[in-house]
Write a structure and sequence with these properties.
The complex is a heterodimer of chains A (599) and B (338). Chain A is 63% helix and 1% strand. Chain A is mostly helical. Chain A has a two-stranded antiparallel ribbon. In chain A, helix 13 (278-291) crosses helix 16 and helix 15 packs across helix 19. The longest helix of chain A is centred in the first third of the chain and has 46 residues, at 6-51. Residues 475-513 and 546-553 of chain A have low confidence and may be disordered. Chain B is of the alpha/beta class and 338 residues long. Chain B folds into two domains: 1-197 and 209-224, P-loop containing nucleotide triphosphate hydrolases (Rossmann fold); 225-330, Magnesium chelatase subunit I, C-Terminal domain (Helicase, Ruva Protein, domain 3, Orthogonal Bundle), CATH 1.10.8.80. In chain B, strands 2-5-8-1-9 form a five-stranded parallel sheet. Chain B has a two-stranded antiparallel ribbon with strand order 3-4. The chains are: A mainly alpha (599), B alpha/beta (338).
Amino acid sequence: MKVLPGTRAFAELFSRRARGVRTRTSLDALFGGLASGALAALACALLGWRTGLSALRYGGPACLALGALVALARHHRRRWSDTDVALFLDEKLDSAEVIVTALGLGDRTDAPANLVVKSAMTALARELPKGSGPRVFRVWHALLPVACAATVWVARLELPLAPPLPAALPGAEVIALETLEGLDQARALWKLAPLDAAQGERLRSISQRAERLKVQLAKGMPRREAQAELSRLRDDVTAERQRLGAGHERRGLEAALAKLANAPPLGSATRALGDRDLTEFDEEMETLANRLEADDRERAKKTLAEAAEAARRDGAKGVASALDEQKTRLSERGEGAEALRELGKALGESLSPEGKRALEKLGQTGSPEHRSELGQELGKAIEGLSDAERKRLAERLKESASDLAKKGKSGANGKDLQALREDLLSPDGQRRLVETLKELSKPPSPSENGAREHALGDAVSELSEGESRLQQPSLVPLPMLDGSQKPGDLAAQKNAGRDRAKGSSGGDPMPGGGSAEHGAGTAPVAAQSVRARASAKLNPGAPNAGSVLGRTPGRVGETALSGGEGGLRTAAPGELSGADRSEIPREYREQVGRYFPAR
Amino acid sequence: MGEDFESRLAQAQQTVARLIETIGQVVVGQSAVVEQTLWAMIAGGHVLLEGAPGLGKTLLVKTIARCLDLEFSRIQFTPDLMPSDVTGTNILVGDEAGRRTFSLHKGPVFTQVLLADEINRATPKTQSALLEAMQEAACTIAGKRHELPRPFFVLATENPIEMEGTYPLPEAQLDRFLLKVLVTCPSEDELTQIIVRTTGHEGAMPDRVVSRDEVVALQVLCREVAIAEPIVRYVARLVGASDPSAPGSPELVRRALRYGAGVRGAQSLVLAAKAVAVLSGRAHVSFADIARVSKPVLRHRMIRSFEGEADGIATDQVVEVLLAHVPLRPAAGDAVMP
């Protein structure tokens, strides 16, 4: 064995003892870090248990590792230097600082240094007294297993129920609906033929908002927000419905109405237009077309043309367009109705009693139902005619056409009768005639404006129903889990919700589409109670959409004659025609009107 | 080489043990005083013995001087003692040819062991005559520097300052004493033995048991003792903390002291500790050595404030506070001792 020089041997001996000391101090730091980490893990688990955040409950291993890493890093930064270790050994070995003195001698090889090194080696060769080494285990390190066990226990505990929620603000509860009345109608508004390009854009925007609302409702949203958005949609659709003759078109509408008032047969239609109810306007014009004779029809067409011109002159292009459309429809539908009537008359006794009654009623009321009934009865009568009777009928039709020609009415009606007569003479023509009669007896398709008016009206009506449904207090569409389900069983809940939702849409919405279950519901939420709370503040300070606060200034010459949107916005039923019913003398009102002429 | 130093250490221990035994034949008790005096002798420093009259201070010094094979002289300090009475002077002498020349008449300071008895009875001017001798082992007379014989060892005695007819030693002079040893009253047993020993036949004077070379060897050996840097730093912190204006000094220091120990105090601590190590047969200094010598080394170097004097706070109390206050390792150190 090679004998090392004193200082080298001392260095090796000291290094070995220092390694032992440092190992023990490192272990001490490690256990301390682990114990700290275990305490942190327990705190996390408790916090997770208290707040319901599961991730915190299972973060124990990470806390342990972090605690150990931090402790070792801290220990490494504050590790004992050789001098510290030497001082520690001197103290524990009771060597009167000979080790630290020898350590500081460096390369000295003089006699005193050799003696010091020799003494230091002698001291280092001694064993540390039992229990005097650096402590590896401390009392508080016992927290490590205790905290670990407690963490595991807390992690396995079931989460406590959340404290009872405070009473929710009205409308702040979350609702979720797969379907809601009015939304589908509103989503389809973009397909309507608009009055103009601007209305087309508005209708498209309404459809998009309805689509978004439908999606949000399916996901769940605060009731009040849904109500507000639905009300806004309804208001906007109502505004579009009232767009004809509103605002700057008002004067044009009034001018057209004044023209129409000159034609007494158009009275009902004029009122309908005055009310801007284009659906009723359509119906009235259909009645007129069925009822009016050719002369009256021509006069009505002329009046309509004059009214359209007046409206166009005063800037009401929409009103003029509607009147022009009605004029065309009056001509087409009127000629068809007249042809039916002439055919009915020509059939004479061959027409069934029902047909005769329908013919009579059609002339009196012009009802579309009577027209339809007459058309069907005419078809039946023609199919039951013998060849001889058909020939006689053809002759009578020929006479009627010639009569019309003599009376100077050989226009379209005369040509129609001539075509009917020719059809009666051949089997194919007879079949065509029956088909034509069926076509003529069909209920009229609404006009473009009427169709839009009808669709907008439907949408408003359905949206109103949707609003009513949202206001139902029993609507609590976020069911919680029942006792049989466990938290986390999301798949089962999702499927259950989907199946139930299918119930509502399983039936054919069209008439005769079969029965449908009405057990639809929202998928249960994966919790035993609601644990999250959202802010219930919705547009603080702003009123709900659809509500009317106070009065808005109207334009000159405008009166609240109808409910709905206008310059005066929504008018209550009692406010309609309020000026007419007031006690202010008519003369005074007219005088005041002269001081404030319409601009 | 290490064995040689070890044998020298052992020899030194034997020498000192022989000396202590011989002194013990004359001086009863006062073992601590004897030991501390020997620390100073080994470290090459001077000792100021303070105690009431009649406690054997002069006897102790005389005995030590007699035990050492060194030149010895004694100065009895009185208020009318002049500096030249201490250092000597040039006197005019005539030779056979009738010429007159100045000749140096050396004073009692030209010796190896000087007993300055009751040093605080002389005026400060006379006391200061010893300054150069004590610091540099030299004496300047009439502009000419004269080296003193080595080793030069001053053993001064003084009465407590409160006694009448005494002059406080200048701080500069006090600082030059390595140790200030307090001579306390003997115990009953010691007093009994003193009475018996001194009231019968006069005892024989002790022999010279330590030669000059042995004394020099002791002093050389003392200087060779190693001291670790942490211990030196501890000494520096200890002395630094005695400065009342230093940040972090103990509250008692700030209240009771006007000036703390200086650089000489730190040097003296290490030298005295080395002497203790030699006496203990060690080639290195320990923290315990520093603590052991701190009182005799520091007690006369710290100047009390008025408040300290008024409250009767002894400098020994201050040293105790310093030892308790100053940690062995710096407080800012990272290592934490278990």
